[in-house]
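Hi R.,

As promised, here are both runs. First protein below:
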Amino acid sequence: MSKKLLYNPLEPYAVKAARTVLRGEGISNNPDLPDVGQGGNLIDFGIEYFRCSVSDFLEKINVGKAVIHKSPRRILSSEPARNESKLKILSVKPLFSLALFQYLSKRAISADLAEKHCQQVYFELSGKPYFAIGFKNDSGGYELRNAFLKISSTPKDITTIDNSSSRVCVFEGFFDFLSYKAMHAQSQLPDQSYMVLNSIALFNKALPKLRTYDQVQLFLDCDRPGQQLTRQAMASDPRFEDASGFYKDYKDINEWLISKQNPQQKKPSIQKRPTRFDEL
């Protein structure tokens, strides 16, 4: 598998596990997991997802050599991901999978909130069946996430939630948007619109629409690309504002939100985050 990918295929677990999933080795033909009514960890999820034994799953992910991470890594590339052209959406349904709800819970997102903005998407990747949380963009494509995959279908585009307001909040990914909504679940948000870039590379495409608002609040990631883009946007137009101050010690809003639900979790070191497989 080429390292030149636009997306990161793991979130947030092992590198070798993600490679195995993307190759489609041993994928079950069962489209969904049973509603077993129990919690679980990565191994519980894996044996249900792959319909295999614990030993078989451990062999799949080569857990002795795997590197476990607490958040997804960004893989930068100048080439399109060839796998996206091999992805075919099969069906879209309301969220109901226990495994996906467990994954959302680990990301500090409630089921009720996710059900308002996301769907359960079944798709094929290189002829193998998968399902994931789907977040629809303005062109009908989907951002697709589960515990093993971070990928998108074509066409790739931004997602706009226009509430006919003069202010818009801008996020890199839909988990950041959901995290912002979760933060304010018990409070009344002001009248505002929302835009999810779904990739920082789509910012220039989003600019004409963003400039129709009087105030643009940027909730971008606290890594070098996100902060550099924030500075450039603010320098080019006074309507753009940096709204990332409250999570500046974390990679993004979702990581900050998770830390608030798990006070013992240490603050991550943003500067030391690897961005490529060969840095892991």
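And here is the second one, sequence first, then its structure tokens:
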Amino acid sequence: MLKVISSLIVLISFIGCTDNSDKETINNTFYIEVVNTADSIKKAIENGLVGKTSFRQQSELKIVSKEYMTEHTPDMHYYNSVVNLDKKIKEGSVKIIIDLQNNYVKDTVIFSMPKYKYSNNEWKKISDLGIITTPVSSRNLIKYRLGLKEYVQTLITQVAAATY
């Protein structure tokens, strides 16, 4: 009898802890949807954000893979793809749409980033994170091309910063 009660207490404690962690993760998870871009750009953005977490360390924004995190703090933000949303979307889920607004040009790329929250069985626009402009370094400006890695890294950093 004592073993059963002890096991039950441990199980209840575990479930209680898991519940709070799940709520915190849901509130800090941003689902990313990339639209109006070439497949290579979409894949690069998703590879740079999906499965990552961001946090501030000594006033500096860090973006790392969730797999490398050993500690979790309340200010951490998690990034996932809208493809990974369950059919039963949880109330309060947040989605950011990264939408290309102009063509891939030599000096600037412009994206809009509306933010939506799932409420009453529909996505409702709650804010617009604005227009994100990814500048190009003078090295690439001289060559009249925009390096995909530089372009995507700038965008990823700006998306993560905009979620705070």
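A quick note on the second one: Confidence is low (pLDDT under 50) at residues 2-23, 138-145. Let me know what you think.

Best,
J.
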